[in-house]
Amino acid sequence: MSRTGRQSLNTSNVLSVIMGGGQGTRLFPLTKERSKPAVPLAGKYRLVDVPISNCINSGLRRIYLLTQFNSASLHRHISQSYKFDHFTGGFVEILAAEQTYQDTSWYQGTADAVRKNVIHFRNHDWEHLLILSGDQLYRMDFRHIINHHIEHNADVTISTIPVRRSEVPALGIMQMEADSRITRFVEKPSDPAVQDSLRLDPSWYDRLGIQGEGEFFLASMGIYVFKRDVIFKLLDNNLTDFGKHIIPDAIPNYRVFAFVFQDYWEDIGTIRAFFEANLDLTSELPRFNFFDMSAPIFSRPRFLPGSKINGARIDHAVISDGCILNYATISQSIIGLRCIVGAGSVLHRTIMLGSDYYESQESIEAHKQAGKPRIGVGTNTRIENTIVDKNARIGDNVVISPAGKADTVDHPLYYIRDGIVIIPKNGVIPDGTVI
Questions:
Q1: More exposed terminus of the chain, fewer Cβ within 10 Å: N or C?
Q2: Strand runs labelled E in 97-200
Q3: Domain boundary residue, one of 235, 264, 280
Q4: Rounded CA separation 335/319 (Å)
C-alpha cells in the first residue's frame, strides 16, 4: 500500500462533495440562526473551512457543498472566501435543497442529498467521487485515500480510524480482511460478544502503521470514495443514508475497502465536543495544529487591525484579530474576532465567537438608554465554562457559570447543553445578572 505515491492520481478526475448536515440539532443553539458548517471555529474560521482546505491542499478544486437549513450566512462565507481563477476550472459551490417537479421533499439523509443532486454531478467529467462530512476537525491529504482506492481497484473506499473499545458503542465499526477489504459493518455495537468479533488482528498493527498496544477497532470516519458508475448504481433506490443503508448493502456486492487513517480526528457535532476541541487549541501543544503552514486552513480574508491588549492578563488563550482587551484576566479561552472585554472581568474556559461589526458610539448610547449593554463583555464580569455567540451583549457585574445547574436548560436569556452555558447570538445579559 503506497502512502506517498501521487503520480497515479489525476486530481482533475475527482469531484468532492461535502455534506453540510441537517438541522444541526446536536449543536443547537449555535445552529439556531446558521447552518452547521457555518458555525465559527477557533476564533476566526468556520467548520466548513476544514474540509474545503483539506480539498484545496490535496489539489482537489471542484467542490460541492450540500446544505438545506439556515444557509444564508454559509452562502455569504463561501462567496467571500473561495474564488478560483478562470483557468483552473475550480469552484466551491453550494447546492441547497430545492423543489423539482419530480420531488418536493427535503434531503432525507446523506445518500438522499447526493441522489437529489446527481443531475448536477453528471454535468462534470470525473472518475471518483469523494464524500466528506462538514463537522469534523482533522487534516488529511485526500490523495492518499484516493490512491489507495485506485491501487486496490476498489468500488468503494471508506476512511477508518483505530479506536479503543470505550469508543465503539458510539461509532460504526468495520471488520476487514488482511488485504483491507471490508467484510462487515456494524453500527454502534454495544454487545461485548459482537465487539469481540470486530477486533483488529494485532499481527496487522505494524503493516497498518498502528502504534500502541491492546485492543483496536476500525471506526468509520464518514469519508468515502466511490467509482463513478458504482455511486450511481448504489443510489438507484430509496435508501437515505450512507452509513446506515448504502455502505452495509454495498459490502457483500461490491469491492469495499478500508483506508486506515492515523492522526488527530474529532467529530465536533455536539456542544461538548465543540467546546473541548476549541479549548484544546489553547494548550501549548494542541492536538490539531492550525500553525502547520504545509497544509494551512483557509478562510475569509479580513482587513482587521491587530488586537489591543490594554493591561489584560492572558494565560493559554487564542486571541483573534481586531479585539480590545482591557484590564481583564483571560485563561484557557478563545477570543473571537472584534471582541471587546471590559476591565476587571475574568474569563476562564470561555469561547467567544466574536462580533460581526464594531458598534458605533450612537448605537452604544441608544442601547444604553434602552437598558442594554454594548456588544462584548462589560466590566467586573466573571464567565466560565461558557460559549458566547456572536454579537452578544454582556453587562457589568455579571456572573455566568453552569455550576450547580442541570446539564440541559432552556432559559429566555441563555441555554445549557452538556453542562455548558451558551449565550445565543445577539443575546443580551443585563448588568448585575447572575446565571
A1: N
A2: 128-133, 136-138, 156-163, 172-176, 182-187
A3: 280
A4: 5
Who's near 83: CB < 8 A, 6+ residues apart? Answer: none
Question: For residue 414, what pLDDT band results from cuts at 50, 70 and 90?
Answer: very high
On the question of pLDDT at 99 being above 80, the answer is: no
* 379 vs 134: CA distance, rounded Å: 37
Single pTM value for the model? 0.93
CATH number at residue 319: 2.160.10.10
Q: Same structural domain for residues 315 and 219?
A: no
The two beta strands, 128-133 and 217-227, are: antiparallel
Counts for the chain of helices (H) and strands (E), in that order: 11, 27
Confidence of residue 321 (pLDDT cuts 50, 70, 90): very high
**How far is residue 181 from each of residues 187, 194, 229, 257, measured CA to CA in Å?**
18, 19, 20, 4
Number of domains within the chain: 2
Quote the domain boundaries for residue 417: 308-429
Does the pLDDT value for residue 366 go beyond 60? yes
CA atoms within 13 A on the CB side of 415: 16
**Do the domain assignments include residue 289?**
no
Could you report the per-residue pLDDT of 20-50, keeping only the tens digit for each? 866 668 899 999 988 889 999 999 999 999 9
Residue 227 CA to residue 225 CA, distance in Å, equals 7
Give residues with Cβ within 8 angstroms of 370, minimum separation 6: none
Residues 121 and 226: beta-carbon distance below 8 Å: no
CA distances from 366 to 97, 107, 395 (A): 40, 43, 15
Same domain, 263 and 411: no
Q: Which of 7, 41, 23 is nearest to 300 (CA)?
A: 41
Domain for residue 301, yes or no? no
